[in-house]
Task: inverse folding
């Protein structure tokens, strides 16, 4: 289907974080926007005026393409074959190890592609998956997802992160060998699992050294547990304080901050703010795994200190994590629903105008963040929600998804709510392959 060369989305309600400084206000809300799309890319974003013509969104809420910052495609959609599951993180790890005998090329490819299909329809343009890497040898899933990334490159950017236990990295030669393999892999980064059950300072130091030498981004599972004194994050900061580390470090989970003494936790966040660190919270998995015991209502839910992190200008993201596996037997690949759970569990204020960036800011996963994030010049990838009410979002998740100026979802769902006209080209697209 040919793209319309010039397109206009008019009267769009964009979040405050996405608008340039000096954008006019209408009462307590920013003025509605007209987005000019030229040949599938955003040409300009300006305040709407009365005689603007195009696709009138009548104040509908609009976000750029969504980011799934933390997923596990090697584990996904396996819960149906795991049998009775015992509660807690370490039990989930053991359950997934027992399932790895089923991880053939076809099994991994098909389950991961199902996830990408789901994410794509929900508006995801970038998905970062962690891949279990438990020996010096490259895992099969790494190769499978490399092939899948090539197949899906025009629809969802799939990035791989090696999830390596610290004990393996005590061998400096292996840590260097793995880092070199990752550097030579397309669109790939290095990570590690840092937990009191496997903590080794030497392994962490070797990991950081290997990442630094290969100029990779580091993406960690760290302190994913409820302990009074976080172990991984202080050790990470001690190492970083003693050297110059210029790449991005992503710290996922950091549940221990939620039950540490508040003065200790806040001092750690003050230190985090001095480094190129992004936090990622995973509400669904943390709510299900932390303080989990059969027949007992959990008391501590494990959500890291997201509000305090944002107050310190620490980039803070929300992601889905596991879907229908031993770690989380529910869910789907939808960052909006992950954020909705985060809003409830974390008491996040101004979800659309402030917190929506936690599921859109791909630059927060890069080495350098974009302080003046702009739509102009980027592909016209948008998610348009079936609501004008900022206060209700993200509880209403019915949406239209636009890719490169074309809607890939059925536009008829909006006609009943908005005085909206869609061009003939804005019909459901079932296959862009």
Result:
């Amino acid at each position: 289907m040919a793209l319309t060369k010039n397109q206009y989305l008019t009267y769009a309600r964009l979040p405050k974080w996405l608008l340039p400084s000096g954008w006019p206000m209408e009462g307590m809300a920013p003025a509605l926007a007209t987005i000019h799309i030229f040949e599938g890319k955003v040409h300009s974003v300006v305040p709407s005026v009365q005689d603007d013509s195009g696709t009138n969104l009548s104040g509908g809420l609009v976000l750029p393409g969504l980011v799934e910052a933390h997923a596990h495609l090697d584990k996904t959609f396996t819960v149906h074959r795991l049998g009775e599951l015992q509660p807690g993180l370490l039990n989930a790890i053991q359950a997934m190890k027992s399932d790895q005998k089923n991880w053939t090329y076809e099994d991994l490819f098909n389950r991961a592609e199902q996830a990408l299909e789901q994410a794509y329809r929900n508006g995801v343009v970038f998905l970062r998956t962690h891949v279990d890497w438990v020996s010096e040898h490259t895992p099969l899933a790494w190769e499978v997802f490399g092939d899948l990334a090539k197949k899906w490159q025009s629809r969802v950017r799939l990035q791989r992160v090696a999830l390596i236990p610290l004990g393996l990295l005590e061998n400096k030669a292996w840590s260097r060998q793995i880092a070199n393999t990752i550097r030579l892999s397309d669109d790939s980064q290095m990570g590690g699992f840092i937990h009191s059950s496997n903590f080794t300072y030497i392994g962490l130091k070797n990991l950081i050294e290997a990442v630094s030498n290969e100029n990779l981004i580091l993406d960690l599972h760290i302190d994913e547990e409820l302990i009074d004194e976080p172990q991984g994050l202080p050790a990470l900061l001690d190492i970083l304080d003693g050297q110059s580390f210029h790449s991005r470090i992503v710290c996922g989970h950091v549940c221990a901050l939620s039950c540490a003494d508040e003065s200790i936790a806040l001092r750690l966040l003050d230190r985090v703010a001095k480094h190129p660190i992004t936090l990622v919270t995973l509400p669904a998995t943390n709510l299900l795994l932390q303080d989990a015991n059969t027949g007992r209502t959990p008391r501590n839910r494990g959500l890291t200190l997201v509000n305090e992190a944002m107050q310190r200008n620490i980039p803070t993201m929300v992601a889905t994590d596991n879907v229908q596996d031993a770690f989380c037997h529910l869910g789907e690949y939808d960052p909006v629903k992950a954020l909705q759970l985060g809003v409830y569990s974390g008491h996040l204020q101004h979800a659309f105008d402030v917190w929506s960036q936690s599921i859109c800011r791909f630059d927060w996963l890069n080495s350098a963040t974009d302080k003046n994030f702009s739509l102009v010049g980027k592909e016209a990838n948008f998610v348009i929600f079936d609501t004008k009410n900022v206060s209700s979002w993200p509880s209403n998740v019915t949406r239209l998804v636009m890719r490169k100026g074309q809607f890939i979802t059925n536009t008829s769902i909006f006609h009943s709510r908005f005085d909206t006209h869609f061009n003939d080209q804005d019909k459901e697209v079932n296959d862009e392959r």
Remarks:
- The CA atoms of residues 3 and 39 lie 7 Å apart.
- The first helix runs from residue 89 to 99.
- The chain has two domains: 6-64+373-415, 66-359.
